[in-house]
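Re: that chain you flagged

S.,

Sorry for the slow reply, it's been a week of failed gels. I finally had a moment to sit down with the sequence you sent. For the record, here it is as I used it:
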Amino acid sequence: MTFFKRVMFLNIFLLLALSVSVLWVSCDNLTNSSTNEDSTGDGTGTGNGTGTGNGTGTGDGTGTGDGTGTGDGTGTGNGTGTGDIDSISQDTLNVDYSGVNNAVFFDFSTGTVTELPHDFFDIAIDGSGTIIANSGSYGSGVQVYKTEETDITKDLSAETDKVKEYTFKTGTALYGYQSEANPFEGEIGSGGQMGNGSGKVYLIKTQGGAYYKVIFDIFGMVSMSPPTAGYKITVVKDLNGGESAKTVLEDTTSGIRNGFGYIYFDLDAAGGPKALNNGSALKEGVTLNIPLAADWDILATRTNELQSTDGTTQMPMASRSSVLLNIYKEVKAKIVTGKSIAEITATDLSDDGLSGEIDAIGYGWYSTAGMPPVYSVPNNTYVIKTQEGKFAKFQPTTFAKDGKSFVMDFSYSYEE
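Prediction finished late last night. Pasting the structure tokens below so you have them in one place:
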């Protein structure tokens, strides 16, 4: 082979090698391009597509980028996530008042939902001694009348028609025989005064239809040697019940502040009236999981509203689907009208306009029209100041679901 031919052959060989190199680089680039579309790039992988990039992965799509993942979409980015707008979660409060009829507690800080039967308690005493019934603004079904009688063994059957349902909120107009809005007002501990009760007999009709006579004997310091805080109430089943039907409920060991905010009493409990703690038997075969006062912010439950405004005219009670605040822990709320949860701004998250009334949300979260009523949920969001002192956003979105009433789907976010 001549020198010239050798040079030509070498040049051809070098040119061929260079072409292979270029082809290899091109293929590599093509591979990277495919990765950007389907793996880590802009396509369906980890790039800008459906992976970790700008698509539906962890980038700008539905992953951790700008889409519905942790980026700017509905994840943790600038959309409805934890970026410029707080992370939005969804949950359901299943009251279903025509079916299971639950009382449903919710804690914004943990996202915990706790369901209890609506009639898990009949009366309750909070840590300051205020007495309530599962009635009016606190529930529905329990009826009360305060007599002038002090003998709990006396037959009070003649007073049956005086037992009514009230709001148990001071200063609220009512109907019936009572002269004050809250029949329990001024009883043991109510208004912050602890000590002996009035000694007067209360008549109480439970949601199950049973009648009881109750005296609130003492609340607060039940013993001075050693100093012991507790409570004592006396209960007799049936309005004609005598000494043999008497039950004394008292606690002089664990104290009045048992962590639940309220000491709950179930008068219809299996085996007789009892005070409830976590895990106490409610009905035979059913146990409770009562949340501690520190473990809930709002309560979804059925309530009844008084429709009389003159204090004397008896009118039918109106049943409502209400969201109540944990006022024992000073939870507060306000409505931001016409804004979805994603539209709430930092300006809305302020103490201005917050209310600490138990029914600051109440039944105003839904609307009714026509007969039979048609229910709808307006585009409103509630700003809530939780017991931790942090803000939460709360937007109910449904009233009925799967043929059940008061099944509330809702969106919420919590200030971390």
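What I noticed first: The chain has three domains: 1-85, 89-117+299-414, 123-289.

Talk soon,
D.
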